[in-house]
Specification:
By secondary structure, the protein is α/β, with parallel strands linked by helices. Helix content is 49%, strand content 14%.
Length: 417
């Protein structure tokens, strides 16, 4: 998103990133290949920003062989040898296992000095606490090398590692120049794999290296249509692999509060559900509140009413927003139901969902039915088994995960008088 920006600051940063990347080619041509390889490996991961799919915000750098393949483009392809890269995203079209996460990490590392200043400025304005920390691998554009510096920055509350912020206007789920777009709209598939042959990504990348004119045409087309490149929608679903991994984390957690299991449970559910329920439920917000001295995290969704069930919930219970109460307990008890009952007021509507580990016992089921009979409030439950099935249908796309809330509601209403 930086290179298409009308901002002179953004354009300058783009030129700075390209200059730093093309300097790697200068090092290779100057007989300093080992130095270029070392710099590219360092630039291939940026833990402080945390973009990508790593669950622990700690990714893995590329290896020496991958770095050498990228740097070989400066020798193998005449255009890059003579002119350097216009957009280093193009490396995705020549080297296997180089995707959008590597592109973002390399960009972030080459402009990390700016991100440090930006983060400090934003945190100072918002009153976010900071402390002096060591930042590794900050690119010095004057010396053209990476160095470690000390800066005043926010830190992760659990790992105490430094964090860097990015302007939201820069964020896009997939680079404008990307392999999938090339493969779908520009790749001459019949020329690469003849009838009966299997078309593999390796064959395509090899073909591209020997037919640069095709890539040049693709890049120029993407430049011509750059104003179609926009920030992603307000929300993008997490990948299926990440959804399954997130549920595995949930399933392994014990019920209760030991070793912060309750907080980990709430956080994992808060990250998983917005993806499962999108686009019918959107604009999720986790809210911390205190009730009787106990911190409780609720997940609130805006009711867009773009599903028949959601229209029914709005009509019957006035739920412009829908409350999900997360409880990492072996059993929901009367106190928990009373808490959610107090929360279901006119401002949020009278429909709520418990996310918990096991089904309600008979006494608690009776209490929810009595709440419906006396106050026309509906409380339904999603258990670990339900969440697992929601992930499965999210993967298979045979149904939408919201159907499990519908099923829970139907089962609840059948118990009501």
């Amino acid at each position: 998103m930086i290179w298409k920006s009308p901002s002179l600051l953004d354009k300058g940063l783009h030129q700075m990133i390209i200059a730093a990347f093309n300097n790697l080619g200068t090092l290779v041509r100057g007989g300093k290949k080992d130095e270029a390889v070392e710099q590219l490996i360092i630039a291939s991961e940026c833990d402080e920003v945390g973009l990508g799919n790593s669950a622990a915000r700690q990714g893995k750098r590329i290896g020496k062989k991958s770095a050498e393949k990228i740097l070989s483009l400066f020798k193998h392809i005449p255009y890059y040898r003579d002119n350097g890269f216009r957009h280093f995203e193009e490396i995705q079209l020549f080297v296997d296992d180089i995707g959008k996460d590597r592109v973002s990490d390399i960009a972030c590392n080459f402009m990390k000095s700016f991100l440090i200043d930006y983060t400090h400025q934003e945190c100072s304005g918002l009153g976010i606490g900071m402390k002096d920390v060591t930042i590794n691998s900050v690119y010095n554009h004057t010396k053209r090398c990476f160095e470690n510096i000390t800066a005043d920055l926010p830190i992760h509350p659990e790992t105490e590692k430094p964090l860097l912020l990015l302007p939201k206007r820069w964020l896009r789920h997939t680079p404008w120049i990307n392999y999938d777009s090339y493969f779908r709209n520009h790749c001459p598939q019949d020329d690469i794999a003849h009838e009966g042959e299997k078309l593999t990504k390796v064959k395509i990348l090899t073909y591209n290296r020997d037919n640069y004119g095709l890539i040049d045409s693709f890049v120029k087309e993407k430049e011509r249509t750059v104003y179609d490149c926009e920030c992603d929608p307000l929300f993008t679903q997490i990948p299926i692999i990440s959804a399954r991994r997130k549920f595995e984390q949930i399933k392994k957690l014990p019920s209760g509060k030991d070793n912060g299991a309750d907080i980990k449970y709430e956080r994992a559910i808060g990250e998983l559900l917005p993806s499962l329920l999108y686009p019918y439920l959107d604009f999720a917000q986790e809210q911390a509140r205190t009730d009787d001295g106990v911190s409780i995290r609720d997940l609130i969704f805006y009711n867009s009413r773009n599903h028949d069930f959601l229209k029914e919930i709005m009509d019957d219970y006035g739920s412009r927003q829908i409350t999900f109460e997360m409880k990492n307990v072996a059993q929901i008890n009367r106190e928990h139901i009373d808490q959610l009952n107090r929360y279901l007021q006119d401002s949020l509507g009278r429909f709520g969902v418990f996310i918990t580990r096991n089904p309600l016992k008979k006494a608690e089921i009776t209490r929810t039915v009595n709440l419906w009979s006396g106050q026309r409030k509906a409380i339904v439950v999603l258990t670990d088994a339900d969440i697992e099935q929601m992930v499965e249908v999210f993967d298979s796309k045979q149904r939408h995960p919201i159907d499990f809330i519908v099923r829970s509601y139907v089962q609840f209403r059948r118990k009501c008088p």
